[in-house]
Amino acid sequence: MARQQKSSVMPPVLEVVGREQERAEEQLSSPGRDAWRRFRHNRAAMAGLGTILALLILSIFAPFMNTVDPLAQDYANLDLGPSPDHWFGTDGLGRDQYSRIAFGLRVPLLVGVLGAAVTTVLGAILGVVAGYFGGLVDSLLARFTDIIFAFPGFTLALIVVSLYGPAVDPYFGGASRVVMLTIVFALVGWPALMRFVRSLTLRMKEEQFVEAARVSGSPPWKIMVSHLLPNMYGMILVQASFLVVAFVSTEAVLSILGLGVAPPNPDLGAMLFEGTQNLGINYWETLFPATFLAIIILAFTFFGDGVRDAVDPRGQE
Amino acid sequence: MSGLLAFAVKRFLAMIVIVWVIITAVFFLAHLTPYDPITVVLGQKARSDPTAYLALRRLFGLDQPLWQQYLDYLGGLLHGHLGYSIDQQTLGIPVWDILKTGVPVSLTLGGYALILALVIGLPIGLVSALRQNSAIDHGSQFVMMLVYAIPSFVLAPIAQLVFAVQLQWLPVAGWGDPGIDGIKQLILPVSVFAAGLAGFFAKSFRSFVLEVMHQDYIRTARAKGIKERTVLYLHAGKNTLIPLATIVGPTLAFLIVGAFIIEIFFDIPGIGNITVNAVLQSNYPVIEATTILLAIAVVVVNFVTDVFYALVDPRVRLS
Asked: Across the interface, do B157 and A280 touch by the CB < 8 Å criterion?
């Protein structure tokens, strides 16, 4: 509509110029848009992204996804294989496995995504501060990072969950362990990202756009927040998606060891371990939770690999 | 050489500080818990028999102020005492006596897994690099990425299902039976454990070889007309082993944490299994000791790796 009006006013030559301009705008390239174009053409990465979205939708809207009560026991239907009534079969207490998986996705996804988000923010802030200021601030932060880096995060989680778990269980409903694990992972998980962001900052702060910002009088925090960090979002996203993988795995391991979510509540790791107790009777109880855990982990791995190839195409060679 | 010594001494002092901070943090985390281990151990008797309760408190030093307990614990560690177990079965047994049976088991498991992973991963990585972008390269990279990404807690039950429950070739679990049965028990846990590591080694070794093969001195060697085989083994070989040594070290941390899950799934009486049992019993002296031992192991390995790296690559010392 708008174009027709324009063409009626504009002479033909100008119309051609206008169209060229429009096309140029469509092809306008920015680092972000280029990365997205490369990402879109990476089939494995797009499959990862699609899978992540599908799992998020399934877990968030679990009550509306043709599920039944994940805690409801049915002693007439124990240890069944997949069927139209029970898509993924039932477990040793006759609970519907599909419903338990749909709800059980929530804990690993929440711990993984939330933990990675908090860790990433911590690591990015500390890294950019250490790299930008250098000097004393940098060496103090570096020493602190060395200590946290050496901390065995996994056994720390064991201590915290086993000694403080029972005390916090009454609070936050059933989510207390989730909150606790997220905090533990975030507290010990940031050093690798901090070092990464610090090294990026060291390299980037000598570049002209940072110098220009400094000369024009931007305060340090503004340079860090609106000049340095936005140029690292892609690289940080790569690390964040690998952190999700690490946290989902650790949460699953803790649940398998019996330290995750308290028993009747559905959780993939806990279901996997309960399933292995019934391996000889009904192996579906093991296969479905194992498959979904593998799917979460592979999806975030493919997504992270895809983002890395998209934001840093030179790294592929 | 003095540069290297100064570097090593500096790193060593830093290592001591790190270990001390970790011990302190772990001690206070374990001792500031809201629950009382003696009450848990004694159960009903804690209230009905106050004499026993107080006697146990004194025995474990829990009647002392916290800073005194902390100093005693540090002093004990310096003399190699890791404290005493607090749970119903093993009350009062030194923690080290509980852990020491698990150490050789975990080392055996981890050692075999590491060897198998190197034997599988390195040749695959080498072939991928030498045939870069061929079908072999893409195929093996994809497979290695999968075994690297799929966690052992998914592989373990599937391997048990296929090879033990369905095919019945190997036992589901167990450890240390005499003769051929003992070897059969090793196969599944070691293979599952090695799978992820092999993938990691194959990926890393491929990129190390690729990087070295693009260096100027390789081009020079080829230009001089030296046989490709000699170039590969003599000129490239040495220089891929340096980065390799630096990734095998930190792998130890992975080996230790990975061992927990393998030991649980395959019912292997190693450190991981002992620690998990301690956790389920809230036997905090054992958890404390394991955490500190693991931290020391990781820090020492990193120290050795750093010094080794500085030894072979002088640029590290100067930065």
From this structure: no
CA distances (Å), B278 to each of B89, B90, B101, B283, in order? Answer: 11, 10, 14, 5
Q: Contacts by B233-236 with C-beta closer than 8 Å and gap 24+?
A: B236/B209, B236/B212
How many interchain CB pairs under 8 A, A with B? 125
How far apart are the CA of B133 and the nearest CA of chain A, in angstroms? 10
User: Is A258–B280 a contact, with Cβ atoms under 8 angstroms apart?
Assistant: yes
Q: Mean of the per-residue pLDDT values for chain B?
A: 83
Could B158 and A290 be called an inter-chain contact, meaning their C-beta atoms sit closer than 8 Å?
yes
Lowest mean pLDDT among A25-29, A282-286, B116-120, B203-207: A25-29
Q: How many CB atoms are located within 10 Å of the residue B214 CB?
A: 10
A90 phi, psi to nearest 5 deg: -125, 165
Per-residue confidence at A314, pLDDT binned at 50, 70, 90? low
Residue A122 at interface with chain B, using a CB cutoff of 8 Å: no
Is the model more confident about A155 or about A117? A117
B170 — contact with chain A (CB < 8 Å)? no
ipTM surpasses 0.85: no
Tokens read off for B111: 């050692």
Q: What is the biggest distance separating any 2 CA atoms in chain B, rounded to whole angstroms?
A: 89
* CA dist., res. B287 & res. B279, Å (int): 7
SS (H, E, C) A121-177: HHHHHHHHHHHHHCHHHHHHHHHHHHHHHHCCHHHHHHHHHHHHHHHHCCCCHHHHH
- Those of residues 71-110 in B touching chain A at CB distance below 8 A are none
Torsion of CA B193, B195, B198, B199, to 10 degrees: -130
Cα separation, B289 vs B105, whole angstroms: 17
| Residue with tokens 């167990």, as numbered in its chain | B174
Please check whether residue B290 touches A, CB under 8 A: yes
CA atoms within 13 A on the CB side of B237: 8
CATH code 1.10.3720.10 for A44-315: yes
- Residue B49, helix vs strand vs coil: coil
3-state secondary structure of B84: strand
> What is the DSSP track for A167-235?
HHTTSSGGGHHHHHHHHHHHHHH-HHHHHHHHHHHHHHTTSHHHHHHHHTT--HHHHIIIIIGGGTHHH
Q: Out of B260, B287, B302, whose CB is closest to A159? A: B287
Q: Do B34 and A279 touch (CB under 8 A)?
A: no
Residue the block writes with tokens 């001792």: B31
Question: Cα–Cα distance between A119 and A184 in angstroms, integer?
Answer: 10
| Residue A269 forms contact with B (CB below 8 Å) | yes
